[in-house]
Amino acid sequence: MWFHRILGQVSVDLGIDLGTANTLVYVRGAGIVLNEPSVVAVAAGTNRVLNGGRAVGNLAKAMLGKTPGSIQAIRPLRDGVITDFELCESMLRYFIRKAYHRSWGLRPRVVVAVPSGLTNVEKRAVLSSAERAGARQVFLIEEPKAAAIGAGLPIAEPTASMICDIGGGTTEVAVLSLADMVVSESLRIAGDEMDQAIVEHLKRNYNLLIGEPMAERIKIEIGSAYPLEQELTMEVRGRDLISGLPRKVLVSSEETREALAEPVDRIIGAVKRTLERCEPELAADLVDNGMVMAGGGSLLRGIDRVMGEQTGLTVRIADDPLTAVARGTGICLDHLSQWRAALESSDDDS
Q1: In this structure, how many other beta carbons lie within 10 angstroms of the beta carbon of residue 182?
Q2: What predicted TM-score, i.e. pTM, was given to this entire model?
Q3: 212-224 pLDDT tens trace
């Protein structure tokens, strides 16, 4: 025990929410110190990160859809899975160094939140990437578990808690009790699919081509899952698919809601399937305890309301839902002995 206390004084532990859209880093004792897009800018045809390895995060995202042929802005994760291991490692190394300011002491221990649906091969890829990026020891925690801990749910108690975490690449739904997931589902439909649905709607109805950043803006500014008291409109600019010239159109929240209906329905379907697999006693607990929503997707206007109507549960959105997973990794770091059994690490046989 004394040995681990000494290690804690010469190293700083980090919690990482390695998201498809954004990566958040929690530093033990300091809270969340970094929240940047999971994007890397490289020289075209190579994995050489530009600007001396610093074209990562905010700087790289600003280049999305605007780069010349010599530069590529790449997201190294898709649907919660690493699609480019070398770039993911470069991104993690940059974020760890940016958050970990010490030039002395041991390398940090790191808790990384990952989707619950990852295969063992995909988990080993995350462990390896984090170790090669500079971590001394790496622990993995499933995102719904981290989100529930970060949202303050009493998951260690013998009562059912339910979480729906809608991220960029995956939606994680889980019922938890006694510090573990009893029933869960990982769906590779989330914020990115919502953005793509908006892109396809504008192609189909306006012959207008827009990029992912513009689709995300539409979703944030006028998107909804439930009718609004006062519907909204937004001027959208893109390229006309027939003339090839720049054009703008006025888009309403009603049609945006129509475009988002399919991905929202699929998320609701995942929640219903999870509930159907619950034991009767757990289902009875949820009548009183309800469900908590986290992740950026939970900020879509009215999604909690439509979810409540479709499931019959009381649904609330977690405080600061964007950071719930990162806060959960931080709580695990702060109380590692308590949550150690809930984590997988590079030392485990699995």
Answers
A1: 17
A2: 0.91
A3: 999 999 999 999 9
